[in-house]
Amino acid sequence: MKNKKLYQNLKVIKNEFLSIEEQNNLDSELSYLINTKKNKENDNDKVQEDFAKNYSEENDDELNGLYAHYNIVKKNINTKYRHLPEYKEYRKLWRDTAVKHIKTEFPLHLDIEVTSYCNLACPMCPRTHRVQLGQWQNRMMKLETFKKIIDEGVKKGLRAINLNNFGESFYNKNLVQMIEYAKSKGVLDIMLHTNGTVMSESLAEQIINSGLDRIIFSLDSITKEIYEKIRINANFEDTVEKVKTFHRVREKLGAYKPVIRISMVRMKENDHEAKNFENFWGLYADEITYTDYRNQDGLDKVDRYTKTRKENKSYACPALWQRMTINATGEVTACCRDAGKRLTLGKFDENKDSSLTDIWNGKKLDESRTLHQNRKAYLIDACNGCDHIRGMIKPKN
Question: HSE (CB half, 13 Å, CA atoms) of 120?
Answer without folding.
Answer: 27
